[in-house]
Amino acid sequence: MSIRCTVESAFFIAWSFLEQSGELGPPDESANIILDAIEAQVRKGERRQLMLANKAIDAYRKQVAQSRPAERQIRLG
Question: What is the pTM of this model?
Answer without folding.
Answer: 0.85
